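ARCHIVE CARD
Drawer: 12
Card no.: 0347
Subject: one protein chain, sequence and derived structure
Cross-reference: see card 0346
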Amino acid sequence: MWEVLHGGTEPFVWMCMNAVPITICSTNVISTELLESVFGAPSSEDSPSAIIQAVPVSPQPDDPYCIYNDYKYVPSADYDKFDWTLTKRVASSSQENFLISPLGLKLALAILTEAATGTTRTELSSVLSFDNDKKVVRQKFGMILNSLETKSSQYILNLGSRVYVGSTVLPQQRFAAIALESYKTEIKSLDFGNPVNASNAINAWVSNTTEGRITNLVNADDVAGVSALVLNTIFFKGTWQHQFAPNATKPRIFYMSAEANKETPFMKIKDNFFYTESIKFNSKILRMPYMGNKFAMYIIVPNSLTGLSPIFNNLSGLRSELCNLQEYLVDVTLPKFQFEYTSLLDGILKELGIRQAFEDTASFPGLARGQALANRLKISKVLQRSGIEVNELGSTAYSATEISLENKFGEHMMPVAEVVANKPFLFFIQDELTRQLLFTGRVSDPTLFDGALKYN
């Protein structure tokens, strides 16, 4: 097997392929500093709007004008339809906290698309909204991955991608070359006949790439009988460009619903941020950049306690609203939070239209030379594990996605805006250059630490 690691290890995406099923897993973690820098102290449903007043201020040299206001076309952003659709489907499964890495899952599926033929490939490409021209797809992914590989002392972003194949499996040379050149993914051989050693090797790599956030992604039973695994990890750690003062953090009330609320620590800051009040979404949208301005967290706080569901139902229109962002002096109150989330995404992908890849008729010849073995590969499960921590200093996020295949037979003197994130809200972290979403999530209860989605 070959291996490729990219500058860090927070988000992690892992795919494993068996002779019959394919499993996808991912893990993400975002630090509490980031969330607190965006949201304000909670208040009742009858309290004033999250952003009470907003007055524009002049852009600062270290915080350039929002990229959305120049309407510049970014080719790699063409593929974010899948990201928003996935986020919407996961959000509709429950009203709890969730965190996913659209990038992690999309990268894993893109690699499988390169290995697929016929209806299997057609369905994958359609759901991912890929161009018909394979070369265009590779160029756009190249833009995304090259941007993420950019090194800086102001943040940590590690991206790792691997395809593990059984010791008896020989991937097609062309597929291996494309995976390496276009997707920064190397192929490495592993003896799945010894599942204990195989799982230990996988977990060691995952732990290393996620800086110890994920230590036991798989066990011996998970990899027994597996023919191939597609894995990728993402680790992000960013420091707020405008940090919260720790001594300003105070307990306040967060309202989960009209009937339920909890006291939790809220961070507070007043500084210049890009912001807009969206009439379309009846919400406030705030951009909170990390040091270096390459990555930013966006927070969407509805004006009403029950206003988040309509936002998720119309996520495809969110990008256009970001074009209205302007710089304001904003008083932000944001809850600290930290949680992990595990999602089984087989059912959602099938509903979106990826069906044959899970069936006996699946075709992934790129993963193995010769039709006999290739025709016996299909996806068994898609699993993602994610985690996030947001505090006064910034954020830490990591993700792991696993796809397994198995044998089918087996301060200013002026009024300011006020953002108080004291009710369920949506957030996402993206690369500002390519507009690629690294993480999307919802905070419904900042006091909870664990969550899970099982959607078959």
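Annotation on reverse: The CA atoms of residues 3 and 186 lie 5 Å apart. Residues 1-66, 411-415 have pLDDT under 50 and may be disordered.
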